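Standup notes
- DV: blocked on the single-chain target, sequence here:
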Amino acid sequence: MYTPPAYSETDTALLHRLMQEWSFATLVSSEMGAPLATHLPFLVDPGGSQGLGRLVTHLARNNPHWEALEDREVLVIFQGPHAFVSVDWYDNHLTYPTWNYGAIHARGRVKLERDPEALRALLRRFIGQFQPAETKWSFDEMPEEMTAPRLRAIVGLELDITRLDGKLKFNQDKSDTDRAGVRAALSNRAEGAETACFMSRLDRMKESAK
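- DV (later): unblocked, structure below
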């Protein structure tokens, strides 16, 4: 991922936090020179052989992508808020429009999990992580005759992250006045409010880290 120094983020703890928030990511690999991609939710665990963490997810067995993953190096792409930025929002108009966005690339080798009980534990983790607290449905209350076939219908995936690249491109190369103008304009646009909010949050995080 092309990342100018102004936009590079190397704080592993911060990247993990953002990966947890931007948890629905894209798994990319190749087979016989052809690219393969699957969109999946991921859990982020600390540790890993490089101290960069581990990613955990599962795929449907009917998805042929998993057959090309065992012990292969893959790329997982996490994407955050993004928005078009108009020159009109800058104090300095001698420049060009751009696009603000956040992206994180995680690389590593895949280990597949097929054991039904390990997959049962994995599904419990996913439900515990993503299901709203007020939801009454319970995975463990489902009849085993329904759960067992579902466990046979998925394959677990664990990725030991060996490289982690973070890019947070939110006008850090612009003046404080220009960045304030962008935040103000985006906050008043339905398609830009999330990006404006993240820009303010990023400033607070960087300030608290000093």
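- Follow-up: The chain has one domain: 5-209.
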